[in-house]
């Protein structure tokens, strides 16, 4: 199935007219331009915002396959949409009269990436050796409200936020260190400079000794002394520690962080290795020979560049004599093509002839094709020695091998006996903030466990899986090669007209369009079957190892009942359904009214936690089912988890717009904001993730059945009447209207319509309504069992006279 080509519609400043008139919006063509040998246009791409007049035009824009951000804002009667465009696309948009404004360019991103790399290098240097720990202060004091321990300590590795200091103390003479308790110290910074770590915590018994240990191996012991004076606890210094991320991270560093945490806290955490390895941060080596399209030859190594392809070189030579024959010579990794000549010594070999000769004589090393599928009828010109390259820019320290995706599993009981919660991020590679949310959350859970009762409650009673990066190959490509990379690095364009290296930034599969529910293969919109589309769904459902890993985790851990898919940007909080069919906007089945109410109820808790950090409010207009607040996303992973596994699955879009009081406008933050902003996003959405854990914990504890009633109640009425169900908590109502026993197969109350509450029943004749309710946790009203013979369901007879 292929998406339809653009079509026309008459609108003011018509987007549809733009789609018809400008071929670069055609989803069946690539966005690269033939004038640029090695995708120079894509190297200059920009993140821009543009305005479309209505929802229909928005859906049509999504269907074209243009690279859209998950950011849509309704205002002034239309929709502001963010997109990543090439210079030619940008010119076309402006030529058609659309108001297009640049948010930021690749040059801005290069500066941010360099800052992050510099920080990462500094971190690596600092953490390579055991640090030195100095205890600056170890005091206790007693005031009107109790006895407190106050500690200040410093580490020589204070440059990096992932260095953590933990205090252990005794409970008096003759007791061991740790007998009195342990806690993680809070990092103290000022103006971006590390000062020290500190701890203020209530204690029951005064300790004699205290030991500070660093996760890098440093430690020191000190005597605990009394603080002189009327010390008063600082209520602004919480016992809860946070803020463990200080730069953007590549896939290797992300994985090392969770492995380090699991090693440090073996009683509370372990690493789960996903069984499906990625393709790897690797590409086949390539080069393009020739200047004109009809005379160009594309050479692709059989081996990946990192496995020998980068060692291959080729040249095209013209013999000095006339009437020379076309010949190919291979010597180890060097290929020489001697071009044919006529009687006057002029080269006569065409691109197609050179391709055929290479594929016959050098097929053990390379594959040759004409450029972009043309006939190759033009004569080629001699070319000096050309080295094949995979065009990958990451340092050698970044592995090119298939990557084992890893999760950190956190919980006191990691045997499936506790309610499971899954958080996963970076399905889309360019969303650099999202892995930091998972890293920050893992750090908080483990480092606060020993001294924070709320954290201990969560870790003791939940089984928490965090996958910081689902898409490690794409992560590396985004951070080192092409910052706008959305997809993974599996190349399904290899045998198409898009196989030449100037399309390399368009290859890959959108992992959040590769799942089996509501997919493009089933007729849902918001994905593409074109291998260059930024919403490419892959050759088939769940074709990619990264998508298979999510499914594997759900299959093998049936205790998982909650999931959060973390994306950026725009500040959204969404849930299923996530896809609809074109034209009719027929969505996947909506949750029942009770399930929808539970999604909303949970959002109150989660969004409140996000707001606590710096006041960020996720707007009501950006909260709700995906189709209601964004656009269709065929084959997304949240739908996979909800419809196939019954997991309550949400989507974060971190990075809410920021209000600029001076301009009177909301300003977007983008995929890779200045780290100062990205840092805050990671912290506030880690709050939100903790909020979801709170919701899950309450769910796990919930053993109380709901209660429900019918309004108005049973009785006699002179005319048809509209009946509504009310319940004590979000609950699904199962009912019958024919006097039969209600079961789980009976009709269910659904929402009235988009963004509305529960529907009602119109009773226009005498009817007996039998029903029961079941809450989100599976508790059934009155302990009713539909499979038994008891009659503890509710019943009401409405008489219409």
UniProtKB/TrEMBL annotation:
The transmembrane segments are none
Would you identify the family this protein belongs to, as annotated? Belongs to the peptidase M14 family.
Q: Any idea where the Peptidase M14 domain is?
A: 338-696
UniProt source species: Exobacillus caeni
- Listed cofactors: Zn(2+)
List the catalytic residues: 653
Name of this chain's protein? Zinc carboxypeptidase
Q: Which domain of life is it from?
A: Bacteria
Annotated GO MF terms: metallocarboxypeptidase activity; zinc ion binding
Q: Which UniProt keywords apply?
A: Carboxypeptidase, Hydrolase, Metalloprotease, Protease, Signal, Zinc
Q: Which SMART domains match?
A: Zn_pept
Q: Which residues form the signal peptide?
A: 1-32
Q: Which SUPFAM superfamilies match?
A: Zn-dependent exopeptidases
Q: According to its record, what are the GO cellular component terms?
A: extracellular space
> A single GO BP annotation from the record?
proteolysis
């Amino acid at each position: 199935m292929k998406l339809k080509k653009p079509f026309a519609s008459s609108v003011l400043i018509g987007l549809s007219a733009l789609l018809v008139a400008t071929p670069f919006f055609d989803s069946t063509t690539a966005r690269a331009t033939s004038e640029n040998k090695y995708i120079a246009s894509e190297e200059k791409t920009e993140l821009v915002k543009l305005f479309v007049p209505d929802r229909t035009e928005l859906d049509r824009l999504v269907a074209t396959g243009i690279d859209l951000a998950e950011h849509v804002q309704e205002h002034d009667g239309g929709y502001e949409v963010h997109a990543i465009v090439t210079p030619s696309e940008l010119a076309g948009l402006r030529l058609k009269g659309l108001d297009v404004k640049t948010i930021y360019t690749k040059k801005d991103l290069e500066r941010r990436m360099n800052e992050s790399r510099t920080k990462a290098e500094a971190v690596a240097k600092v953490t390579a050796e055991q640090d030195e720990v100095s205890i600056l202060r170890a005091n206790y004091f007693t005031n009107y409200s109790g006895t407190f321990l106050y500690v200040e300590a410093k580490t020589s590795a204070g440059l990096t936020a992932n260095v953590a200091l933990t205090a252990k103390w005794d409970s008096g003479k003759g007791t061991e260190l740790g007998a009195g308790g342990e806690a993680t110290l809070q990092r103290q910074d000022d103006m971006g400079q590390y000062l020290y770590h500190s701890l203020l915590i209530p204690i029951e018994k005064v300790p004699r000794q205290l030991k500070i240990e660093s996760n890098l191996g440093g430690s020191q012991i000190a005597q605990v002394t009394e603080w002189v004076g009327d010390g008063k606890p600082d209520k602004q210094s919480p016992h809860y520690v946070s803020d463990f991320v200080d730069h953007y991270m590549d896939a290797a560093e992300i994985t090392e962080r969770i492995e380090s945490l699991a090693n440090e806290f073996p009683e509370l955490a372990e690493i789960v290795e996903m069984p499906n390895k990625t393709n790897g941060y690797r590409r086949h080596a390539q080069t393009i020979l020739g200047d004109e399209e009809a005379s160009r030859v594309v050479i692709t190594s059989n081996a990946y560049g990192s496995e020998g392809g980068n060692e291959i070189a080729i040249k095209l030579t013209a013999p000095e004599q006339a009437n020379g024959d076309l010949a190919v010579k291979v010597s180890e990794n060097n290929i020489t093509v001697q071009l044919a000549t006529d009687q006057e010594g002029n080269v006569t070999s065409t691109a197609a002839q050179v391709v055929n000769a290479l594929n016959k004589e050098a097929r053990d090393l390379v594959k040759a094709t004409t450029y972009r599928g043309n006939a190759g009828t033009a004569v080629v010109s001699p070319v000096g020695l050309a080295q094949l390259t995979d065009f990958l820019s990451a340092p050698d320290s970044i592995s090119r091998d298939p990557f084992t995706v890893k999760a950190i599993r956190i919980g006191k009981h990691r045997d499936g006996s506790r309610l499971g919660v899954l958080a996963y991020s970076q399905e889309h590679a360019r969303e650099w903030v999202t892995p930091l949310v998972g890293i920050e959350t893992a750090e908080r859970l483990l480092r606060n466990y020993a001294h924070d009762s709320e954290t201990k409650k969560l870790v003791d009673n939940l089984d928490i899986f965090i996958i910081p990066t689902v898409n490690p190959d794409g992560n590396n490509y985004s951070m080192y090669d092409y910052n706008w990379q959305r997809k993974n690095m599996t190349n399904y364009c290899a045998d198409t007209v898009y196989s030449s290296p100037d399309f390399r930034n368009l290859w890959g599969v959108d992992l959040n369009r590769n799942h089996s529910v509501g997919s493009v293969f089933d007729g849902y919109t918001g994905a593409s079957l074109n291998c260059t589309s930024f919403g490419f769904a892959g050759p088939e459902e769940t074709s990619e190892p990264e998508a298979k890993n999510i499914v594997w985790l759900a299959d093998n851990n049936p205790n998982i009942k909650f999931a959060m898919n973390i994306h950026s940007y725009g500040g959204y909080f969404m849930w299923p359904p996530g896809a609809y069919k074109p034209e009719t906007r027929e969505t996947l089945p909506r949750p029942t009214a009770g399930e929808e109410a539970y999604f909303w109820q949970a959002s109150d808790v989660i969004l409140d936690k996000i707001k606590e950090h710096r006041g960020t409010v996720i707007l009501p207009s950006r909260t709700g089912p995906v189709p209601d607040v964004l656009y269709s996303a065929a084959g997304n992973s949240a739908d996979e988890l909800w419809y196939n596994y019954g997991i309550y699955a949400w989507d974060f879009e971190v990075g809410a717009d920021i209000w600029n009081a001076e301009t009177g406008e909301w300003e977007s933050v983008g995929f890779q904001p200045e780290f100062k902003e990205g840092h805050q996003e990671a912290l506030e959405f880690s709050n939100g993730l903790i909020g979801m854990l709170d919701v899950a914990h309450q769910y796990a504890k919930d053993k109380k059945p709901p209660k429900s009633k019918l309004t108005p109640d049973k009785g006699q009425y002179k005319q048809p009447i509209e009946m509504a169900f009310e319940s004590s908590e979000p609950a699904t109502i199962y009912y019958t209207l024919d006097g039969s026993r209600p079961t789980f197969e009976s009709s269910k109350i659904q929402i009235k319509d988009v963004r509305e509450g529960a529907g009602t029943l119109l009773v226009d004749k005498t009817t007996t309504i039998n029903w029961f309710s079941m809450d989100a946790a599976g508790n059934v009203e009155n302990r009713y069992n539909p499979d038994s013979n008891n009659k503890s369901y509710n019943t009401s007879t409405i008489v219409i006279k």
